[in-house]
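Board notes (copied after class):
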Amino acid sequence: MAPATSLFVEKPTEQTPPQASKRVSVKTLVESPGLTSIPSKYSYSLNPNESAGSEPDETIPTIDFSLLTSGDPHQRSKIIRDLDKACREWGFFMLVNHGVSKSLMKEVLDGCNQFFNLPMEEKMGYEGKDIWKPIRFGTGVDVKVEEFFFWRDFLKVYVHPQFNFPNKPEGFSEVAQEYSKRTREVIKELLKGVSESLGFEQSYIEKAMNLESDHGLLTLLIENEIGGLQIQHNGKWFNVNPLPNSFLVNTGDHLEILSNGRYKSIKHRAVVNNKSTRITIPVPLGPSLDTVVSPAPELLEGESGCPAAYLPMKHKDYMDRLLEGKPCLDHVRLPVA
């Protein structure tokens, strides 16, 4: 689970405060005296070919989790087809009736807000440059080289196989542990459905990927109703407006590789605003670091099989490249003959 907060302030340009020349947390920067403009290091211009987000002509798919677990074979068969279509055509879907209580979702969002409002010296106790540190507070992104600074502060924690979490604010660790447990159960059940949608037995992905890590297969995300998430669909960016108490789910790089390109890991981005703090909590699930990820051999066999579209790569090596800001999917994607 990697909670992160995004802040944005925009005022008429007068002067740049001394703090802006140093790398500080976004919250500290926003609250610094004399801040009247966005420092240039935090400024990013969109590619001219990238249009701003808009309302889509189509609606992001909705998957009813209760039908996936109902025990009715006809309902399950239909929802598996819906899941397959969502992963193929969108790479994103909204998950409803997932069984995680509204109160628990609110508690974990409130806990995140309280953590980021702690005094800076308390948060800095979790600061570090080691990207594999089990509890890590920081600002920007988890890469060693940044062309510009991301306008966000983050708390990243590893909650499986060992649960790690800050001991402040009081009670937040217990809430986060319960939330991590419940969301992991949801993701694993979803992966059973994804396995079936690819023509495998329910446990195929869990066995093949040795699920232990973050990033790669599926990510569950909630936000504090501020909005700002945009996804790219059919070459256009548009705003995502999630249903109340739903999870946003996206397919990751390794699900694209495992499915040999049938399912897509699509581009998405967050747009901050000049009024409110945006808080998002993504909970990803992926292979163990020692797992070598490659297209499923069963999809490459027989008359209907296709040539492998991706090179195999150990998950740890893949994550190292990702966290260094290097291209990942392009590195392992094979050219089309």
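Comment from the instructor: The longest helix spans residues 172-197. Confidence is low (pLDDT under 50) at residues 1-21.
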